[in-house]
Amino acid sequence: MEDRQKGGMLAAFITVTTLFFAWGFITSMIDPLVASVKGIFDLTDVQAQLSAFAFFIAYGIVSLPAAALLSRLQSAKTIILALILMVAGCLTMLVAANLAIYTLVLVGLFILASGITILQVAANPLAAALGDPKYSHLRLTLSQAFNSFGTFLGPVLGAHLFLEGIEVKEGSAVTEAARANALAGIDAAYFWISGLIAALALFFFFARKIVTAAAPVPSDEVARRGILAMLKDALSSRWAMLGAGAIFLYVGAEVAIGTQMAWFLNSDAIWGNSDSPFGVPFVGALMGSDGVPGVSLQEAGKAVALYWGGAMVGRLVGSILLAKVRAGRLLAVFTAIAAAMCLYIAFVGGVEAGYVALCIGLFNSIMFPVIFTLTLERSTASEEATSGFLCMAIVGGALLPLLVGAVSGAVGYGLALVVPAACYLLLCLFALSADRVKVAATAGAPKKAMH
Known about the structure:
This is MFS transporter. Keywords: Cell membrane, Membrane, Transmembrane, Transmembrane helix. It comes from Allosphingosinicella deserti. Helix content is 78%, strand content 0%. By secondary structure, the protein is mainly alpha-helical. The protein has helices spanning 2-28, 30-40, 45-48, 50-99, 102-129, 136-162, 176-206, 208-214, 220-224, 227-235, 238-266, 283-287, 297-321, 327-347, 351-364, 367-378, 383-392, 396-411, 418-436. It has one domain (2-436): MFS general substrate transporter like domains (Growth Hormone, Chain: A, Up-down Bundle), CATH 1.20.1250.20.
């Protein structure tokens, strides 16, 4: 019986991990999309960053309703509903691309992200819960590694489809042919993504019994609570609020760097006038030189995959390290290194700064899953309320990129990384504070395990 239960847990974990891959792939395509719409619709940095805003603002609006929904429908039904909503968002993007209306692009991104938000609220605690509580950090980090594999592939496909012939440097112009080609690429990308999500929904529908059997069941009291009660519950916990602040800063910094990475690498101060990246094994092959001296926006957009690929490698390595090193201490080291890298880029710059920027993803790797599980362990609020509140804090990905976009427009892409550097330093303080708190396991709450 015990072996059968473990087998069910493993099957459920594998099923849920496929969802992490899917939303990672979709989310990372925002980076080349932001770079593309600036040229397609002739936008400023801040206006182009509205694409990221429309996507990530959904987390601030939908997360707590999603938590309330999860408490009523439980994991399997909630995830299927989320996937249906994601298909609707993709179909809206198809209409937006065919009509060439930027406002409709923003609407489609919001609907798509609303589905992903519901998916994350359900899947993150589920992945952490499916097994021995002692390894919750490891499991969620491993699932996030597959999420990172999706984020690695997304920018490569997006740059290939969205950025051919698109230029955003001052004084450059986008031809009608390039504009039409980019819009056709957006149409094709979201058509195939909608098919992928529909297939995942069917797959998950047939695997729902496995997940339902393994998933933690919320109490009747939790199921009766509304959104305001969820919010009140989360706000009653000091660590739920601290964790939400940490998620806000982390996601804001990560998204701001990722969405501006292509512009940064394409700038003349970094790689715009250099062929250096094409001489680096794998990097040059991934970017695929077009034969024109310097790095074009499309080539830079493909290089963004390395930023997310670093997170994938870091999560695989982090899964091993977290089995041996206390989570809070490892988080403190990674955030301090990321802050130092941002400061190097801001105040030293040059061609080498391009390589440093891409490597930040390596140290972003463990931040989300570790912040999430550190907070779940310390929060006195219910798991559903805490999870919903943490996912709501992903709204940092909507707000901080707008700030970084405004700063980059004023002082340049390199100096704008002072903002993410400040975020990472604050995250280091969070990690050190969490590491000093002694967490005791409580009855009926196996998730609150000792590090």
